[in-house]
């Protein structure tokens, strides 16, 4: 192994540079990960396009990653949260990008069940290279794992295209689980077995939401998208009915209401990340239903809503921002057990030098998850 590694640095909106960095010394409480694969998230593209005013330029992005432990500090198993047994060199793992919460801030003290609110966590793939130590993302040949990192051992025989979906599945599972509250589906409260659900946006996250809904016992699943290729993928993931998002809204509303006995879906999950889709979600969801917003991790603009609709429908609206790291354990379990062809969501794989091309393709018709293999 050389003493240098290459990484793709987002220098600013619309600007990428490949740089070499020194491989850091592995201290007794850290580890070195050789990156096997990292998915390009829609968030990465939005940041590249300048849609995130808080982006920590310059930084190495990449938070959907798996890899192999190639160096392990003697106290790393004590300093990190390791799931699946103690770590050894050669272990194949998935990394939750956010570290453990600090346990001291107002959110940790008052809302310990919401660790994603902690402002003192570090995040792989969203930290400036100017900080020390640099918390690199995984559009890079190596990533140094520091104390407080959540590490999840992977089944050694899990195919790469399936394993790299752990993080997107975690995001999707959280969105589905946000709909459970208060958990009395038989009383028409929240999500549960047999509920009718509509998913707006059938990109990689929307497709995984559909798969998680099918795995968890949803009744009717309706998927909407602008692209026929994405609707076809949603069908492969378990959607029962497909809605062409290019049709006029009134026609789509009529179609969905006919499918749901005139009421509308019990739950609507917005995964498109387009402001008008949130507006439409309010129109689709039934009275007394739930709306889960998971598509807007970056600021993609505003839309007009009708407050009367929220009041009249007595609808519950839940945001879904990231996830507790523990949900990775459930994501891995899902990927081990589901018979759905989830790996088909990964449609393109490029080497590190192909990152720009992969970024350009992300979000295009006929393109699902794009992955990079450094």
Helix content: 25-40%
Structural class: alpha/beta
Instruction: Output the CATH homologous superfamily of the largest domain.
Output: Medium-chain alcohol dehydrogenases, catalytic domain
- Report mean pLDDT, rounded to a whole number: 95
CATH topology name of the largest domain: Quinone Oxidoreductase, Chain A, domain 1
Number of strands: 16
What is the CATH top level name of the largest domain? Alpha Beta
The CATH architecture classification of the largest domain is: Alpha-Beta Complex
What descriptors fit this protein?
374 residues; alpha/beta; Quinone Oxidoreductase, Chain A, domain 1; 8-stranded mixed sheet; 6-stranded parallel sheet; 12 helices; 16 strands
Describe this structure in words.
The chain has 374 residues and is an alpha/beta fold. It has 2 domains: 4-157 and 341-373, Medium-chain alcohol dehydrogenases, catalytic domain (Quinone Oxidoreductase, Chain A, domain 1, Alpha-Beta Complex); 169-319, NAD(P)-binding Rossmann-like Domain (Rossmann fold). 27% of the residues lie in helices and 24% in strands. The chain is built from 12 helices and 16 strands. It has helices at residues 42-48, 76-79, 106-110, 160-163, 166-178, 204-215, 228-236, 249-259, 275-284, 307-313, 327-337, 355-361, and strands at 4-12, 15-22, 31-40, 64-72, 81-83, 92-96, 142-145, 150-153, 197-200, 221-225, 241-244, 267-270, 290-293, 316-319, 346-351, 369-373. The strands form 3 sheets. Strands 3, 4, 5, 6, 7, 8, 15 and 16 form an 8-stranded mixed sheet that branches. Helix 9 links the parallel strand 12 (267-270) and strand 13 (290-293). Helix 5 packs across helix 6 (204-215) and helix 5 crosses helix 11. The longest helix has 13 residues, at 166-178. It is globular.
């Amino acid at each position: 192994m050389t003493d240098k590694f290459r990484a793709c640095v987002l220098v600013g909106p619309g600007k990428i540079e490949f740089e070499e960095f020194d491989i850091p010394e592995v201290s007794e409480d850290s580890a070195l990960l050789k990156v096997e694969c990292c998915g390009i998230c829609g968030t990465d593209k939005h940041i590249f396009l300048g849609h995130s005013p808080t982006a920590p330029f310059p930084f190495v992005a990449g938070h959907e990653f798996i890899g192999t432990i190639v160096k392990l500090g003697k106290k790393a198993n004590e300093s990190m949260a390791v799931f699946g047994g103690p770590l050894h060199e050669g272990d194949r793992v998935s990394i939750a990008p956010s570290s453990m919460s600090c346990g001291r801030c107002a959110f940790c003290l008052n809302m310990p069940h919401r660790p994603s609110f902690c402002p003192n966590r570090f995040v792989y793939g969203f930290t400036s290279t100017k900080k020390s130590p640099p918390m690199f993302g995984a559009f890079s040949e190596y990533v140094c794992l520091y104390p407080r990192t959540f590490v999840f051992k992977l089944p050694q025989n899990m195919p790469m295209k399936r394993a790299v979906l752990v993080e997107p599945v975690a995001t999707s599972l959280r969105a589905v689980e946000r709909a459970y509250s208060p958990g009395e589906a038989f009383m028409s409260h929240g999500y549960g077995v047999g509920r009718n659900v509509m998913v707006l946006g059938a990109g990689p996250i929307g497709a995984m939401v559909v798969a998680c809904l099918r795995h968890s016992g949803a009744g009717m699943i309706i998927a909407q998208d602008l692209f026929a290729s994405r609707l076809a993928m949603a069908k492969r993931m378990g959607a029962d009915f497909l809605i062409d998002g290019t049709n006029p809204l009134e026609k789509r509303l009529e179609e969905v209401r006919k499918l749901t006995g005139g009421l509308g879906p019990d739950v609507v999950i917005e995964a498109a990340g387009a402001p008008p889709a949130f507006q439409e979600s309010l129109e689709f969801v039934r009275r007394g239903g739930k709306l889960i917003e998971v598509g807007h991790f970056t600021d993609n603009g505003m839309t007009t809503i009708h407050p009367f609709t929220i009041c009249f429908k007595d609808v519950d609206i839940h945001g879904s921002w990231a996830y507790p790291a523990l949900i990775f354990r459930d994501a891995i379990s899902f990927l081990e057990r589901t018979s759905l062809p989830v790996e088909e969501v990964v449609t393109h794989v490029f080497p590190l030098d192909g990152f720009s091309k992969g970024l350009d393709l992300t979000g295009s018709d006929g393109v699902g998850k794009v992955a990079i293999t450094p």
